[in-house]
Each structure stands twice: as C-alpha cells, then as structure tokens.
Design a protein that fits this description.
Elements (H helix, E strand, L loop, with lengths): L1 H17 L12 E2 L8 E9 L4 H11 L5 E4 L1 H6 L1 H9 L3 E4 L12 H18 L8 E2 L9 H7 L3 E3 L3 E2 L8 H11 L4 E6 L6 H16 L3 E2 L6
Parallel strand pairs: 1-6, 2-3, 2-8, 2-9, 3-4, 4-5, 5-6, 7-8
Helix pairs in contact: 2-8, 5-6, 7-8
Pfam families: Polysacc_deac_1
Keywords: Hydrolase, Metal-binding, Signal
Protein name: Polysaccharide deacetylase family protein
C-alpha cells in the first residue's frame, strides 16, 4: 500500500508539473527549478523564441542591466532566425533546448523524444557552432513525460521553474511587473516568454523589474547545474 501511495503521489506531482501555473521541482525527476547560488537570487529564463521583434529588444534590455539569462529555444524559429541565436550567445546568455516544434511530449516514447531533442540541438549547433554545449532542456507546457531521463542521457539538465506570470496572455506591463514583484521567492527560476508572438509587455516588464528587484537586495543568477 505504501508503494502504491508513493506512485499516486508521484503521479500527482507530475500532473501538477504539466499544468500551466507552476512546475514541480521534485528532485526525483531531476528537474531543476532553483538558482546556482540560492539566497536572494532569481534566474530569468525566456521560452519560445527566437522572435525577430522582441528577442533583440530583450537582449538590449538585459545588456543595459548587465543580466545574464537562459533562452529556451524553439527549433523551428532557430532555423528561421539563426542570426538571433548567434546574438543570444554573443551576449553571453545560456541556451536551452525547447524541442523542435513545441509539441506536448507527455505521451511520447523515449525514442521519439530523443530524436526530437537531437534534431533541435543540431539546429542550434548549426546556428552557433562555436557555442558551449547546450546544458538545459525544458519540455513545452511543462509536460515532461519521459523526457527528463532522455535529456539527461543527452547531457542536458531538465529546467523547470517556480514562478511564471502568464505573459503568454499579455495583461499589461504594470500587471506583469506586479506579478513578478509579488511572485519572486529566494532562489527561484522564473519563466517568461520572448516568443512566439508579441512579447513587448514582457520586455518592458523585465526592463522595469530588474532595477526594482536590485534595489530590494535581489541579485540575478543562472539556473543550478546539479
Ligand atoms: Zn514553450
């Protein structure tokens, strides 16, 4: 009975991770959702780019504030905008594999997942052959399925999050800033979006929240490597 209860609990955890609100960072799955240094730090991560409008704007904002972030790249857009991928790397940011076509991996076999992740990493590698190895993977929709084990086999850590602010339905920059201000917790990986659609509000919110959080004693970090 005890074993059955554990299985049910794990199923619940994975079910929560698949929802849009918040991923579980359950250690048993190996999914990282914390920063490298902990304490009063946060790690900004951006999904679903590169986006020809907003990713370059975001890069300028991050450079202005001297913040390094992680970009979870959508393979189709990598192939369409390789120059932006080169810019991301040239600015010193960290790359993350976010699959080729942003499909739900929840029911996929390990073989199918591996083929997709390899294809995505190869597309990124073609855009930036000189980039460091891709260390992170994030499943679209937080629907991990069997992907963490596959990613680990390919040398990538699975990257979850502790805070996301539903910026895929832009509610206004003020509201995004409020959600960030009220949602950050020590050591949190924060999920934002620079693609695939208009993310001007996200870029503006990042521009405003960075100095505000810094004034409150927060520092910007990268995701943990464990
Ligand atoms: Zn995504």
């Amino acid at each position: 009975m005890r074993w059955r209860a554990v299985v049910l609990t794990t199923g619940l955890v994975l079910g929560l991770a698949a929802g849009p609100a918040q991923a579980s960072g359950a250690d048993e799955t190996g999914i990282i959702d914390s920063t490298r240094h902990g304490g009063r730090t946060v790690a900004l991560t951006f999904d679903d780019g590169p986006n020809p409008e907003d990713t370059p704007r975001l890069l300028r904002v991050l450079r202005k504030h001297h913040v390094k972030a992680t970009f979870c790249l959508w393979g189709d857009f990598v192939e369409q905008h390789p120059g932006i991928v080169r810019s991301i790397v040239a600015h010193g940011h960290v790359l993350c594999n976010h699959t080729m076509h942003h499909e739900d991996l929840g029911t996929w076999t390990p073989e199918r997942i591996e083929a997709d992740l390899r294809q995505t990493s190869a597309a990124i590698r073609r855009a930036v052959p000189w980039a460091p190895p891709i260390r992170y993977f994030r499943a679209p929709y937080g629907s991990w399925g069997q992907s963490p084990a596959v990613a680990a086999k390919l040398g990538m850590r699975s990257l979850g999050w502790r805070l996301t602010i539903s910026d895929w339905e832009p509610p206004g920059t003020d509201e995004l800033v409020r959600r960030l201000r009220e949602g950050v917790t020590p050591g949190a990986v924060v999920l934002l979006h620079d693609g695939p659609d208009d993310r001007a509000q996200t870029v503006e919110a990042v521009d405003r929240i960075i100095p505000e959080l810094r004034a409150g004693g927060w520092r910007f970090d990268l995701p943990a490597r464990r």
